[in-house]
Specification:
Length: about 300
């Protein structure tokens, strides 16, 4: 009995040694014909992602997207979220609940990154929109249809569409007002996009097209949010300017400021010297309430035509 046990132990050790040698020296293209899943795992270990996906694509959709998800996670960890977005645009976006956190992370990364408020960002926003559109199309046909997760992704799709359309409008001077309206519409979604960044972009866009009342409100809110981020609390925010609108009051407090500007960025030097600084930059004064100055902010449909 003892000899048999020793023989089994030796055989097991021999198996382990041969397995290690095979993983180290055995050509992967030969291993694919013997054990394709082991070969794919070895491609992952060696970070040979292109070969991994090429081989996985020859198997089936489920196998392919197992390794697409692994590669996307790797890219996100490296900070290459744009490549991860492009990866899903290329291979499709399955409605697998295991992937939902990846899709949400890609959305969060993109709306938080700087330098995306311009015409050159169109292709990136369009890729995110295509990813989410494909996902929502797949969700409709899945067991997750009409669930809270589905509704959340539909909202993300709408937001990404606004961003993509704004970027397209920014490439045409005659569409400046369209771009400004889209920046203002995005304020409805400051519960899922950075509030300070959204108000700054809406305020500067309104200022550029001459909508000074809205510019005042939005840039003032931006400065209030900047103070709130420094203090670590939204408690002191005054919401009176946004009564009768569908801009949310309860928004997540950003962990850090997304926009770092000086007064000269918001105002021209002449405006700063001439006292406009108080109007657009550092003032904590408030305009009359929304009802007194008219409904020029985004408002629910029920409030647009009062009986």
């Amino acid at each position: 009995m003892g000899l048999r046990r020793q023989a089994c132990t030796r055989n097991y050790l021999l198996f382990v040694i041969l397995s290690v040698c095979a993983r180290t020296f055995f050509p992967l293209f030969q291993l694919v014909g013997v054990d394709v899943m082991a070969a794919l795992d070895m491609y992952v270990e060696r970070e040979q992602w292109e070969k991994c996906l090429e081989t996985a694509a020859k198997q089936n959709y489920k196998v392919l997207h197992k390794y697409v998800a692994l590669y996307a996670t790797h890219l996100i960890q490296e900070g290459s979220w744009d490549k991860a977005v492009a990866l899903y645009v290329q291979h499709g976006t399955p409605a697998n609940s295991q992937n939902f956190n990846i899709y949400k992370r890609l959305f969060v990364e993109m709306v938080n990154v700087a330098g995306m408020n311009n015409a050159e960002a169109y292709s990136s926003w369009a890729d995110l929109r295509d990813l989410l559109f494909n996902l929502c199309e797949n969700l409709v046909k899945s067991s997750d249809a009409n669930t809270p997760a589905h509704e959340e992704f539909e909202t993300m799709l709408l937001v990404s569409h606004y961003y993509a359309t704004r970027a397209a409008a920014q490439s045409i001077k005659q569409l400046d007002t369209v771009a400004a309206k889209l920046s203002i519409s995005l304020l409805r979604h400051t519960d899922i996009i950075p509030a300070d960044k959204a108000f700054y972009e809406a305020g500067t866009a309104a200022k550029e097209v001459g909508w000074e009342n809205m510019a005042f409100i939005f840039l003032n809110r931006f400065l209030d949010l900047t103070d709130a981020i420094e203090e670590g609390s939204l408690y002191a925010l005054d919401h009176s300017d946004f009564q009768y609108t569908d801009i949310p009051y309860e928004v997540p407090l950003p962990a850090k400021q997304h926009v770092a500007v000086s007064p000269a960025v918001i105002c021209s030097p002449n405006q700063v010297r001439g006292g406009m600084r108080g109007k657009f930059c550092l003032s904590r004064m408030r305009l009359p309430g929304a009802r007194e100055r008219g409904s020029f902010l985004p408002v629910p449909l029920a409030h647009r035509h009062p009986k």
